[in-house]
Protein backbone atom coordinates (compact mmCIF):
# COMPACT_ATOMS: atom_id res chain seq x y z
CA UNK A 1 0.00 0.00 0.00
CA UNK A 2 2.96 2.28 -0.75
CA UNK A 3 3.53 3.57 2.78
CA UNK A 4 -0.14 4.13 3.57
CA UNK A 5 -1.92 2.48 6.47
CA UNK A 6 -5.51 1.48 6.96
CA UNK A 7 -7.47 2.98 9.82
CA UNK A 8 -7.05 -0.08 12.05
CA UNK A 9 -3.27 0.15 11.82
CA UNK A 10 -3.43 3.88 12.51
CA UNK A 11 -5.64 3.30 15.54
CA UNK A 12 -3.21 0.74 16.91
CA UNK A 13 -0.22 2.97 16.29
CA UNK A 14 -1.75 6.15 17.75
CA UNK A 15 -3.78 4.63 20.56
CA UNK A 16 -6.90 6.35 19.23
CA UNK A 17 -10.09 4.41 18.65
CA UNK A 18 -11.50 3.87 15.16
CA UNK A 19 -14.49 5.92 16.23
CA UNK A 20 -12.30 8.83 17.34
CA UNK A 21 -10.32 8.82 14.10
CA UNK A 22 -13.52 8.77 12.07
CA UNK A 23 -14.90 11.61 14.20
CA UNK A 24 -11.78 13.71 13.61
CA UNK A 25 -12.27 13.12 9.90
CA UNK A 26 -15.96 14.03 10.13
CA UNK A 27 -15.20 17.37 11.82
CA UNK A 28 -12.39 18.16 9.38
CA UNK A 29 -9.35 17.84 11.65
CA UNK A 30 -7.75 15.11 9.58
CA UNK A 31 -8.44 13.77 6.12
CA UNK A 32 -7.01 10.46 4.94
CA UNK A 33 -4.49 11.01 2.17
CA UNK A 34 -6.26 8.61 -0.12
CA UNK A 35 -8.62 5.68 -0.28
CA UNK A 36 -8.03 2.19 -1.53
CA UNK A 37 -9.83 0.87 -4.58
CA UNK A 38 -12.22 -0.78 -2.14
CA UNK A 39 -12.92 2.58 -0.47
CA UNK A 40 -10.89 2.03 2.69
CA UNK A 41 -9.31 5.08 4.29
CA UNK A 42 -5.54 5.16 3.81
CA UNK A 43 -3.35 7.35 5.99
CA UNK A 44 0.18 8.61 5.34
CA UNK A 45 2.89 9.48 7.85
CA UNK A 46 1.89 13.20 7.80
CA UNK A 47 -1.71 12.15 8.53
CA UNK A 48 -0.51 10.11 11.50
CA UNK A 49 1.63 13.00 12.77
CA UNK A 50 -1.47 15.20 12.53
CA UNK A 51 -3.50 12.70 14.57
CA UNK A 52 -0.71 12.57 17.16
CA UNK A 53 -0.79 16.38 17.36
CA UNK A 54 -4.55 16.32 17.89
CA UNK A 55 -4.13 13.64 20.55
CA UNK A 56 -1.66 15.89 22.40
CA UNK A 57 -4.02 18.89 22.21
CA UNK A 58 -6.95 17.02 23.74
CA UNK A 59 -5.73 16.84 27.39
CA UNK A 60 -4.93 20.54 27.19
CA UNK A 61 -8.64 21.28 26.65
CA UNK A 62 -8.33 22.72 23.17
CA UNK A 63 -11.77 22.95 21.55
CA UNK A 64 -12.39 21.68 18.01
CA UNK A 65 -12.33 25.19 16.54
CA UNK A 66 -9.05 25.92 18.30
CA UNK A 67 -7.58 22.62 17.10
CA UNK A 68 -8.67 23.39 13.56
CA UNK A 69 -7.17 26.90 13.72
CA UNK A 70 -3.93 25.73 15.30
CA UNK A 71 -3.51 22.91 12.78
CA UNK A 72 -4.08 25.44 9.99
CA UNK A 73 -1.42 27.71 11.45
CA UNK A 74 1.03 24.83 11.79
CA UNK A 75 0.26 23.76 8.21
CA UNK A 76 1.07 27.27 6.99
CA UNK A 77 4.36 27.73 8.88
CA UNK A 78 6.38 27.23 5.70
CA UNK A 79 4.13 29.41 3.54
CA UNK A 80 5.35 32.77 2.31
CA UNK A 81 2.07 34.29 3.57
CA UNK A 82 2.73 33.26 7.17
CA UNK A 83 2.43 36.61 8.85
CA UNK A 84 2.24 38.50 12.08
CA UNK A 85 -1.34 37.46 12.80
CA UNK A 86 -0.52 33.76 12.60
CA UNK A 87 2.64 34.32 14.62
CA UNK A 88 0.64 36.12 17.29
CA UNK A 89 -1.98 33.35 17.41
CA UNK A 90 0.73 30.71 17.62
CA UNK A 91 2.16 32.52 20.66
CA UNK A 92 -1.34 32.65 22.20
CA UNK A 93 -1.78 28.92 21.65
CA UNK A 94 1.63 28.24 23.19
CA UNK A 95 0.74 30.34 26.23
CA UNK A 96 -2.58 28.53 26.61
CA UNK A 97 -0.84 25.14 26.40
CA UNK A 98 1.75 26.16 28.98
CA UNK A 99 -0.92 27.51 31.34
CA UNK A 100 -2.92 24.31 30.99
CA UNK A 101 0.22 22.29 31.79
CA UNK A 102 0.66 24.34 34.97
CA UNK A 103 -3.00 23.72 35.86
CA UNK A 104 -2.62 19.98 35.26
CA UNK A 105 0.52 19.87 37.42
CA UNK A 106 -1.40 21.59 40.23
CA UNK A 107 -4.25 19.08 39.86
CA UNK A 108 -1.77 16.21 39.93
CA UNK A 109 -0.21 17.61 43.11
CA UNK A 110 -3.63 17.70 44.82
CA UNK A 111 -4.39 14.15 43.65
CA UNK A 112 -1.01 12.88 44.87
CA UNK A 113 -1.59 14.52 48.27
CA UNK A 114 -4.97 12.84 48.50
CA UNK A 115 -3.50 9.43 47.59
CA UNK A 116 -0.80 9.93 50.24
CA UNK A 117 -3.47 10.75 52.82
CA UNK A 118 -5.30 7.52 51.98
CA UNK A 119 -2.04 5.55 52.27
CA UNK A 120 -1.48 7.08 55.71
CA UNK A 121 -4.98 6.11 56.82
CA UNK A 122 -4.42 2.55 55.61
CA UNK A 123 -1.04 2.38 57.38
CA UNK A 124 -2.74 3.36 60.66
CA UNK A 125 -5.12 0.39 60.47
From TrEMBL:
Signal peptide limits: none
| Record GO terms (molecular function) | DNA binding; DNA-binding transcription factor activity
Q: State the source organism's domain of life.
A: Bacteria
Q: Which residues form the HTH merR-type domain?
A: 4-73
The record's keywords, sorted A to Z, are:
DNA-binding
Put simply, this protein is called DNA-binding transcriptional MerR regulator
Organism, scientific name:
Haloactinomyces albus
Amino acid sequence: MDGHMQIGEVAERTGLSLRTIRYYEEVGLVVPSTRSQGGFRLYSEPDIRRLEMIKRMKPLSFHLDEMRELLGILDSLQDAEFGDTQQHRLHEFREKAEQRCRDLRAQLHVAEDFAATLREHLAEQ
